[in-house]
Design brief:
Keywords: Cytoplasm, Lipid biosynthesis, Lipid metabolism, NAD, NADP, Nucleotide-binding, Oxidoreductase, Phospholipid biosynthesis, Phospholipid metabolism. The chain is α/β, with parallel strands linked by helices and 375 residues long. Helices cover 48% and strands 10% of the residues. It has 2 domains: 177 residues, NAD(P)-binding Rossmann-like Domain (Rossmann fold), CATH 3.40.50.720; 177 residues, N-(1-d-carboxylethyl)-l-norvaline Dehydrogenase, domain 2 (Orthogonal Bundle). The protein has 16 helices and 8 strands.
């Protein structure tokens, strides 16, 4: 049975885009007292008075108890948990503005899936650096979470990750409703990188979809993409099983196959022949994958990780590779047969390791997330 949320538990959500508003709805439906911060006063007024966010969630009725404001000080007043859902490239400046109003012992939760272009830093690392708070007070949420589907209360799940299991559990209690289930783990690196990297693979899927390639091509890229995601994340200290869970494989499937995915849509436009600048102009909301390609490849090179799919996406963005030539699973450095894993230590037992990760994940889901790692 789900632990009951203490009545009047005060939380704030910063960012009233589609995901921020959807998550505010989840928290309000879960019993929390939610204040949503919208940068534009007219949007805050529409949410509070009209129970709608017509710009980002057309047709969705928001909970009666959900309030919104354009004042940061009012949004953060007394908030025990602060959920941040702003574009990743503006996180740092938003945190600087919010810092004076964040309660001393508040938990700060990242809802974002990106890395900072200038530094390559993950969102939780920026939160720790700017706010100068203990990592035990920071959490990140990721998973197969297409906002509009969740706003329509279609059942789904996510994972809450924190260096402190107690913190992850406290956030998960609030972020659980009859249609949204939160699991927990302590692998923040894997959880965050999974959310970033799947965007890049979704760009590749969109590109080949726009070209007109079929399911075989997409299945090969998704599968090889999961290998790239896992190798990269493990090189930076993640647990491989996290990438076989909701924050990795689950998010990858949802983002690659859905027309609701901004990254998939951007890739499809590129595949149809639109230039990078034209795609950016057409996208009404931030497409995190476009900003993350360069920083991720720099981080990969720093650890000696090969990412041929992401590299070819970079070439398409730069205009140096025709979209129909994107076939990274076919273009290799050698004509010699290769193992499925790209790292040396995975060539011999990569299949067994990947199966083990899948099995652990399925076991955990079967038993309500009570397996090792809790994810």
């Amino acid at each position: 049975m789900k632990p009951k949320v203490q009545p009047g538990k005060r939380v704030a959500v910063l960012g009233a885009g589609s995901w921020g508003t959807t998550f505010a709805k989840i928290l309000a439906d879960g019993g929390a007292d939610v204040m949503l911060w919208a940068r534009r006063p007219e949007l805050a007024r529409e949410i509070s008075e009209g129970r709608r966010n017509s710009d980002y969630l057309p047709g969705i009725n928001l909970p009666v108890g959900l309030r919104a404001t354009s004042r940061l000080d009012l949004a953060l007043l007394g908030a025990e948990q602060v959920f941040v859902s702003v574009p990743s490239q503006s996180l740092r400046e938003n945190l600087v503005q919010a810092q004076p109003y964040i309660s001393e012992n508040a938990i700060v939760v990242s809802l974002m899936k990106g890395v900072e272009r200038s530094s390559g830093m993950r969102m939780s690392a920026i939160i720790e650096q700017v706010l100068q708070i203990d990592p035990a007070r920071i959490a990140a949420i990721s998973g197969p979470n297409l906002a509009l589907e969740i706003a329509k209360e279609q059942p789904t799940a996510a994972v809450v990750s924190s260096a402190s299991l107690e913190t992850a559990q406290a956030v998960a209690v609030l972020a659980t409703t009859r249609y949204f289930r939160s699991y927990v783990n302590t692998d923040v690196i894997g959880t965050e990188f999974g959310g970033v990297l799947k965007n890049l693979i979704a760009l590749a899927i969109g590109i080949v979809d726009g070209v007109g390639y079929g399911e075989n091509t997409k299945a090969a890229i998704i599968t090889r993409g999961l290998v790239e995601m896992t190798d990269f994340s493990v090189a930076y200290g993640a647990h491989p099983e996290t990438l076989a869970g909701l924050a990795g494989l689950g998010d990858l499937i949802a983002t690659c196959q859905s027309p609701l995915s901004r990254n998939n849509t951007a890739g499809r436009l590129l595949g149809q022949g639109y230039s990078y600048n034209d795609v950016v102009k057409q996208m009404q909301q931030t497409t995190e994958g476009l900003a993350s390609v360069g920083p991720i490849l720099e981080l990969a090179r720093a650890r000696g990780v090969e990412m041929p799919i992401v590299e070819q996406v970079r070439q398409v963005l730069a205009g140096t590779l025709k979209p129909r030539d994107l076939a990274p699973h076919l273009t290799t450095d050698s004509d010699e047969p290769q193992g499925e894993r790209t790292t040396d230590d995975g060539q011999a037992h990569g299949g067994a390791a990947l199966w083990g990760a899948f099995k652990r994940t399925f076991d955990q889901l079967r038993h309500g997330g009570r397996g090792p790692g809790g994810n």
